[in-house]
Amino acid sequence: MQIRGRVLGEDRASTVEVQDGKIRRIDRSRPAEGALGDESLVIAPAFIDVQVNGVAGRNVNTANVTAEEIAAIPPHLHGSGTTMFCPTLTTGSAEQMTRSLKAIAEACRDPKMAHAIPGIHVEGPYISSEDGPRGAHVLQYVRDPDWDEFRRFQEAAEGRIKILTLAPERDGAIPFIEKVAQSGVIVSLGHTGAQPAHIEAAVKAGARMSTHLGNAAHAQLPRHPNYIWEQLAKDELWMGFIADGHHLPPAVVKCFVRAKGLERSVLVSDAVSLAGMPPGRYAGEAIFGLGDPREVDVSPEGKISLAGTPYLAGAGLLIHRCVQNIPRFCGLPLSDAIRMASHNPARLLGIQDQAGSVEVGRSADLTLLRWDVDQKTLKVEATLVQGEVVYKAER
Ligand SMILES: [Zn+2]
Q1: How far apart are CA 359 and CA 119, in angstroms?
Q2: How far is the CA of 53 from the centre of ligand 1 (A)?
Q3: How far does residue 270's CA lie from ligand 1's centre (Å)?
Q4: Domain boundaries, position 332
Q5: Based on the domain organization, do 207 and 58 belong to the same domain?
Q6: Tens of pLDDT, residues 201-222
Q7: Do 296 and 54 contact (CB within 8 A), yes or no?
Q8: What is the CA radius of gyration of the chain?
Q9: Are residues 310 and 175 in the same domain?
């Protein structure tokens, strides 16, 4: 199969040849007959989203989650150019979290799902109990770090947990971070009200990332020091951030990206099951699980908040919308924005030899994009997984 377009970062069109699921050749001279795409399109590595709770009514955290439910998620991400994602568990009972982990592990016995899921992100339950930092996580199940419980989680997940988000100020968190980091899992700081000393100690213990930096925070903070500045200044910490236009104002996105630099910035959607659903008020069960009495509002712009509060309950836009916002908010070229959603998450997860760039030998996980440089609008025209077209925009 052949794909025609401008490889990301290049001015001239190329023909990308795909065979056996991999990029076999990139021909910079020859136009191709019958190729997918054309010279007006950008050929980019498909996006890798390390924080996805659900989409289009499918939910990683629901009580009746099954392997089939997990397997139904990827097709809803393909339209955003995303081919790999980390299903993201939020705080729940040990039983609920174990059920979700087992369902994901079972889904991954299908090689296609194992390809789509480079790792699981467990967000909680070892997070802050305070309103604000806790965000929409259920207070009842928030708890102190427990190594034995985490090992049981990892066992249920058949070793697939790759990212753990926690609050380093919880009792026992620092020695716990050391063990988790040594086991090869990326420890990410999030849903935290940490003091600077906690952040310092967490980084020394091996924490490597901040989860949706600037969100799940107190509505008001001391101007300095505070946990946002401290994390921004720590070069050891990569930054996961949500540039959907609702979670962080454009000026904050710009400052964050400048502080962290292009190499350590990772766009995430944090999409929840109501992402892609029509605007309106919904039962919170759709996001938080059966029996949760809270309600959630979905705005026409895709903002999802706890009804009657200023607290966001997750995100309603997928990662291509965050990619589109980076040139708008930061004045950076599209290639830099895409790097934050493909190459950087691949590097974070340690799969950069397989995915995250358009290079010979990499998996043919590609997305064909139409980029209007004046309007700064991005449209996903097609998406391929291992060389197979899984999404094509309607004409
Ligand atoms: Zn969160």
Answers
A1: 23
A2: 10
A3: 7
A4: 47-349
A5: yes
A6: 999 999 999 999 999 999 999 9
A7: no
A8: 20
A9: yes
